[in-house]
From TrEMBL:
Organism whose genome encodes this protein: Kribbella qitaiheensis
Protein keywords: Membrane, Transmembrane, Transmembrane helix
Protein name in the entry: Succinate dehydrogenase
Keyword Membrane (UniProt): yes
Membrane spanning stretches: 23-43, 88-109, 141-163, 175-195, 236-259
Amino acid sequence: MATGVSAPGRAQIKQKTLRTDRWWLAPLRIGAILGFFVVYATVRIFMNKYYWVDAYHYLTPLYSPCVTSSCVEGSSHLGTWFGAFPKVIPFSIITFVVLAGFRGTCYYYRKAGYRSLFFAPSACAVPEPHKKYTGERKFPLVALNLHRYFFYGALVFGLLNVYDGTQAFHGKDGGFGIGLGTLIIWINLVMLWMYTLSCHACRHIVGGRLKNFSKHPLRYRYWTFVSKLNPKHGTYAMISLFTVILTDAYIMSVSAGWFSDLRFLN
């Protein structure tokens, strides 16, 4: 039996929609951004190079942590947990799985993806092309319910990124130093943490299932802080995409020798 706008009893009209505004602009813009990030990240993780600047200890977040013996010397801050990887396997496969899983199952990105990539629906009063609706009960969409577990992984990688950020205060002579790369890395860190802490799963984990906030003042304080960030979660999600790309592109450029890092101190 037909469903949606084709269901029996619904008015049958030839027009796809009666909207006269540019309703397609928002999903087109978001879809282009998401598509560009997916392509860029995929290309970069399979490059397996230009991810480390030894002179200043810059490590791109797409390759952090680099824990295989295939990593270039100096980039394995936490040691080498694994042997050499075949060339067809990215060094950052673990990072990619966890962080892509976190963003891919994120409530905001799910909404953005449904509207921009799957047109389900692309805008209000615009029917979607799918003839039936199955929700998120079947594979692979049922895996989206793993979001809160990916959140724990994102917290771990967020702490690793902070450690990488402290290593970026490194000068040529081995002392303290600050360069443009250092500032870019820390701007990205701030946006990544704003995105992570404003997450709906974070809000639930911090203050969910509490029947009485007065008995849990510390958790209530954390819940209040996250609740203030939560309305801007989508904004942080999109900004952090650009800061990740900027950080990786800058470190790649310096590592490849395309230009030198602008130094402010040492």
